[in-house]
Protein: asparaginase
Organism: Weissella coleopterorum
Amino acid sequence: MNKKYLVITTGGTIASAATEKGLAPNMAADELIAFFQPGPEVELAVLDLMAKDSTNMQPEDWLLIAQSIQEQAEKYDGFIITHGTDTMAYTASALSYLLYGFNKPVVLTGSQIPLGMQYTDAESNLQDALLFINDTKLKGVFIVFNGLAMVGTRAVKTKTQSYDAFESINYPYVARMMHGKVNQLYQPEPETLPLQTGTLALDTNIFMLKAFPGMTVDIFDYLKTHAHGVIIESFGNGGLPFERRNLLPGIQSLTDAGIPVVITTQILEEGQDISLYEVGQRVVEAGGITAGDMNTEAIVAKLMWVLAYTDDIDEITKLLQTSVAHDMGFV
Ligand SMILES: NC(=O)C[C@H](N)C(=O)O
């Protein structure tokens, strides 16, 4: 029996052309799928969902993609989403949570240079995405880019121009595509569902701060009345200053108000060991919730997902610190 895949187009460089105002997505979905070279036992269908530079993608768009996949789940063996690279890692994370437990592969891909342009990487990325989805037995959400497949919650865009724009951070690559063949490199560990959501919902009312030397503490007053959850990108292993502009009372007051403060790190690799230094242990004492080796992109989506499920800070903490879709606990 033929395998059937749905290609969902959302825009991005891959579907872009030059305009007076710079590259913008405008390629029709039918035109885009003509660049695939499906084998004899593969059938492709296309859904023209949106045409956005991924800079314009927001949580409502993640929900729309997830809903389209859920609605068509029975009809297809897998889904390929063409997407801009700038926020692809956020979308991949969001779909990993929204579609948690989905028993078919969902692969996002895109390109650094538009389809049809000289030196484009789009055709090989499309072909690799199809190869991966057709050959692998893996389920869940992945990004395929520049010959590598990575788990959606672990992908990070690390380059603005080069073909190898994405890296799998703090987690092994799952497959390499070369010369028309898939070589599986890693089998993600089995996981059990930590919660029953069933509904596609996100609480977008979160805020993220990047700490810098000299950051004012006043911002916490605003956040206390405006945010349901806060993420702080700390220095190094989770530390934040407790001298002069002391951030700890702000974290404590948010925590006391039932607003989770998730502590991640500005450092891309190796996660955080928040108890290593006094500057980290004090953050935990003030209520900071360490995000371990999770990527910022994953934390943003996970916090929105968890907040839509519960407002109990203990449960939020527990869920945030449970590995979902392989997002934490590898390092
Ligand atoms: N390479 C790309 O796709 C970048 C583009 N700005 C986008 O994210 O839609």
